């Protein structure tokens, strides 16, 4: 029999409190054994048991894996973890721990929930567009890259706005209770109800029964009252995958798509300043300017912004949020580097090596200028077994997965994370050599694998005797074809081919 878990005192500190809540979640899921939990979560049983042990605060990726395996809501639990982490930091600073008593103006990286409509600001134009589209279509797919804010838009924007009209609105997310929640929602959603299915992509790769749920959802939407509206929240990179399954094809056949992009400059200022004003706080103009600059052009900025603002609020001076407090908290760069280091720390040795290969591919090497973010297409991951690592980095908001692409969520990671900086500058010549191979292999593919685009001479000789473990499928095929062509081009090989032709002619 498994050993009983040690007793916890939730009042003893944030780590024990979070551990007690994780135990409650596991009990609500049927007290799943840690071995079975490990099979679902992708972490060892010892790691998951430690998360609920209360001796120390588990990392965010481990916490969210535990939660998903138990059918919990990752967004809500990410918010709980951030609060526990902030309380832990306060304890290290010498202050006693206590449950937060003042509600911060921003929810942090977990995003906005249905009860946060008073804090959800800066996306009025996008919300109006979704509502207008719902007036013309029964099914609407709201899609965007990870970190674009689509879940917050649906939960804190769309659902409260629909309820203000006097009509019911229900939210369904992946998990063990999704089918039951669907039935209950359809019972409530007679007349002009709204059914929001968020994190739609997780029904494909998430808990068992996802495909059955999709079929039930499609059938229900087809048979329901014509006034019922269905909204799908889905990551853009999964939008295309919906066509691989019969049920989503039927569901989305006549759906309208609404893409969610990053907020504009004026929306960013409202996201920063207006919640603070409503909470009786003021924000230094220099801080607003700095945050707008930090978030501008960064594809995964919103979750990072939420965490950075929460940290700035914790470092406020009286009722003023200052630039110095934001910088003391590390800003958006500190947020993403902490997340990246957490993923690295909690990965296996093989996972760390794959993460290194993934992250260095997401950087364009500067020549006399700083390195910059690089957009990578799916072909680069073929043969690298990078799927789990990409998913984990995306969950931690380190990278953004778009429509068949991957890129760093914030360019500041390149310079702010010492580990990535070391990877890029140690053996830089080797990395540049590899990048030239990547580009040459892509050119070869784009020319229909024409032999004229293969490596010859010194470029090919540079790869003789080198290890090929870090190469993807396309790069390996390119090198193999180049070496075969080199053998075929040798004078002896040409003479042999010529003599064989003469022999065959004479022998006729």
Task: Describe, in short, the structure shown.
With 508 residues, the protein is an alpha/beta fold. It has 25 helices and 11 strands.
Describe the structure.
- With 508 residues, this protein is α/β, with parallel strands linked by helices.
- The protein has 5 domains: 10-92, 434 Repressor (Amino-terminal Domain), CATH 1.10.260; 114-259, Rossmann fold, CATH 3.40.50.300; 265-329; 354-426, Arc Repressor Mutant, subunit A; 433-491, no CATH class.
- It is 55% helix and 8% strand.
- It has helices at 14-28, 34-41, 45-51, 60-69, 74-92, 124-134, 150-164, 178-188, 202-205, 210-223, 236-239, 246-252, 265-278, 285-295, 301-314, 323-328, 331-346, 349-361, 387-395, 412-416, 418-425, 428-446, 458-461, 473-489, 491-506, and strands at residues 139-144, 169-172, 194-197, 229-235, 256-259, 282-283, 320-321, 363-364, 372-373, 399-401, 406-408.
- The radius of gyration is 26 Å and the shape is globular.
- Mean pLDDT is 83; it is low at 94-101 and 500-508.
Topology:
Layout: H1 14-28, H2 34-41, H3 45-51, H4 60-69, H5 74-92, H6 124-134, E1 139-144, H7 150-164, E2 169-172, H8 178-188, E3 194-197, H9 202-205, H10 210-223, E4 229-235, H11 236-239, H12 246-252, E5 256-259, H13 265-278, E6 282-283, H14 285-295, H15 301-314, E7 320-321, H16 323-328, H17 331-346, H18 349-361, E8 363-364, E9 372-373, H19 387-395, E10 399-401, E11 406-408, H20 412-416, H21 418-425, H22 428-446, H23 458-461, H24 473-489, H25 491-506
Parallel strand pairs: 1-4, 1-5, 2-3, 3-4, 6-7
Antiparallel strand pairs: 8-9, 10-11
Helix pairs in contact: 1-5, 2-3, 2-4, 4-5, 6-7, 8-10, 10-12, 13-14, 15-17, 22-24
């Amino acid at each position: 029999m498994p050993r009983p878990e040690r007793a916890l005192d939730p009042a003893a500190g944030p780590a024990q409190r979070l551990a007690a809540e994780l135990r409650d979640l596991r009990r609500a899921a049927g007290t799943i054994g840690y071995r079975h939990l490990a099979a679902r979560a992708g972490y060892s049983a010892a790691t998951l048991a430690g998360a609920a042990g209360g001796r120390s605060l588990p990392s965010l990726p481990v916490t969210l894996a535990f939660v998903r395996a138990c059918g919990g809501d990752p967004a809500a639990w990410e918010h709980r973890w951030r609060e526990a982490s902030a309380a832990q930091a306060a304890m290290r600073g010498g202050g006693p721990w206590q449950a937060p008593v003042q509600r911060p103006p921003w929810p942090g990286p977990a995003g906005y929930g249905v009860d946060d409509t008073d804090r959800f600001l800066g996306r009025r134009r996008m919300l109006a567009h979704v509502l207008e589209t719902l007036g013309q279509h029964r099914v609407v797919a709201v899609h965007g890259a990870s970190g674009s804010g689509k879940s917050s838009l649906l939960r804190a924007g769309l659902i409260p706005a629909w309820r203000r009209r006097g009509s019911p609105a229900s939210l369904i997310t992946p998990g063990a209770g999704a089918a039951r929640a669907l039935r209950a929602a359809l019972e409530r959603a007679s007349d002009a109800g709204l059914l929001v299915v968020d994190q739609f992509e997780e029904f494909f790769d998430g808990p068992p029964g996802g495909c059955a749920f999709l079929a039930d959802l499609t059938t229900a939407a087809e048979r329901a009252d014509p006034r019922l509206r269905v909204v799908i929240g889905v990551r853009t990179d999964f939008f295309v995958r919906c066509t691989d399954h019969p049920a989503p094809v039927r569901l989305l056949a006549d759906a309208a798509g609404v893409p969610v992009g990053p907020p504009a400059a004026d929306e960013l200022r409202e996201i920063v300043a207006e919640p603070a004003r409503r909470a009786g706080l003021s924000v230094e103009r220099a801080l607003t300017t700095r945050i707008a600059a930090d978030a501008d052009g960064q594809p995964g900025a919103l979750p990072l912004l939420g965490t950075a603002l929460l940290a700035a609020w914790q470092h406020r001076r009286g009722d003023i949020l200052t630039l110095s407090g934001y910088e003391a908290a590390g800003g958006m760069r500190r947020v993403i580097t902490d997340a990246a280091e957490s993923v690295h720390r909690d990965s296996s040795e093989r996972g760390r090596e794959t993460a290194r290969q993934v992250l260095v591919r997401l950087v364009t090497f500067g020549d006399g200028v700083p390195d910059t973010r690089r957009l990578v297409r799916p072909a680069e991951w073929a043969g690298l077994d990078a799927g789990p690592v990409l998913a984990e980095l995306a969950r931690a908001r380190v990278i953004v997965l778009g429509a068949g692409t991957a890129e760093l969520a914030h360019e500041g990671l390149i310079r702010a994370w010492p580990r990535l900086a070391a990877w890029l500058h140690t053996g830089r010549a080797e990395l540049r050599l590899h990048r030239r191979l990547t580009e040459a292999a892509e050119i070869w593919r784009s020319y229909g694998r024409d032999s004229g685009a293969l490596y010859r001479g010194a470029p090919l000789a540079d790869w003789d005797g080198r290890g090929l473990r870090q190469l993807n499928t396309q790069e390996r095929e390119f090198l193999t074809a180049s070496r075969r062509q080199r053998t075929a081009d040798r004078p002896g090989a040409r003479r042999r081919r010529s003599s064989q032709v003469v022999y065959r002619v004479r022998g006729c």
